[in-house]
Amino acid sequence: MFASLKVAFGAVPDQYRWLVSIVTSLNGTIEEGLRELHSILETTTPANNVYYAETVMYTALAEGRLNNQPDRGLQLLYTHFGKTPETRTVQYLMANLLIADGNNDGAITTLSKTVGVQGAVRIPFLEFMLGECKLFRGDADADLYFRNFLITHKGKHFIKEAHQKLAWYALLNGDRPGYFSQMQQILIKGANTTDEDQQAMLEAETHATPHPVLLRSRLYYDGGYYAKALNELPESLYTTLNQHGHRLEYLYRKGRILQAQKSYPEALHYLSLTISTGQYEKYYFACSAALQCGIIHETLGSLPTARKYYLMCLEITPETYSSGLHQKARLGLNRIGEE
Question: CA geometry: angle at 213 spanning 149 and 276, to 5°?
């Protein structure tokens, strides 16, 4: 399908497009590819398009994760498959987009459903996703799903991250020996390939124990519980933070929460402070803050300013998450027609 390939090409980082051009003359943008995918859905039916269901799923995922419109992706899935997933692929996509849309409770409900043949073995990564969603919400049984994942998963990726999440679970429950035990597992198990696994490895190697209050705020934010996340960050907390990294994280977390609440002027204030005080540091906060400033200005229609921040994001190279953040910045430039 040329439309899906155009979307994929639009998401290819600049430094790799030369490689793609060796084997194909394909070009395009995410917007062009999505327009063609929607056209296919409007002009064909399951009766005359054997790949109709796959087109729906790909379009939904592209809308949610590449075009930054998870609500559109969810509506596509609901329209064509209903709100109760019948296959594990649809279950994964629905949960993925619900998380992106800030509906963590909905993701937990979706992931908790028994889908497919009764008694069939669950896909291990769905266990990981459910554990993560429950950790976001602060559920007491969150650790069980990460443990199930580690037992059933036969691959190398996400192993370090799963141990990190178990360590965080222990830390938030006052079990510091349990935290350090899980961090030791990170050093000896799993691969060090994904951004998340690399970040877990760095935390283990540097003994950079998270601040429990900042961590709880981060997890509430990741689950879409913005009011709870903000309540964890009173101004008085900032003055008690002795480590520069923790102070930088405080500014960043507050900016992200205010952004999620659409309090854009306040969000830009805290995110700009994060950039000015952290862009030459090893932490990823300034790089991500620049990306988010770009997204805010894109949302507000200030495209030249959005471009400035997306380019700024590409210039900052933190120790972790740089590849993922830079990719999102390129997608932003692609959306506003700058690539």
Answer: 105
pLDDT, tens digit (0-9, with 9 covering 90-100), for 27-53: 567 788 889 999 999 999 999 999 999
Residues 145, 169: Cα–Cα separation, whole Å: 12
Task: Note the pLDDT of residue 105.
Answer: 98
Sign of the CA dihedral with 191 first, then 194, 200, and 201 last:
positive
Instruction: Reply yes or no on whether the pLDDT at 10 is more than 70.
Output: no
Q: What is the pLDDT of residues 164-181, one digit of tens each?
A: 999 999 999 999 999 999
On whether the CB atoms of residues 94 and 77 are closer than 8 A, the answer is yes
pLDDT of 314 reads 97
Q: What is the DSSP string of 290-332?
A: HHHHHHHHHHTT-HHHHHHHHHHHHH---SSSHHHHHHHHHHH
Q: How far is CA 330 from CA 20, 152, 255, 259, 325, in A?
A: 16, 36, 22, 20, 9
Distance CA 206, CA 61 (A): 36
The 3-state DSSP class for residue 267 equals: helix
* CATH hierarchy code of domain 222-335: 1.25.40.10
Q: Tell me the whole-structure pTM to 2 decimals.
A: 0.82
Give the residue extent of every domain in the chain. Answer: 1-120, 136-209, 222-335
What is the Cα 274 distance to its own chain's centre?
20
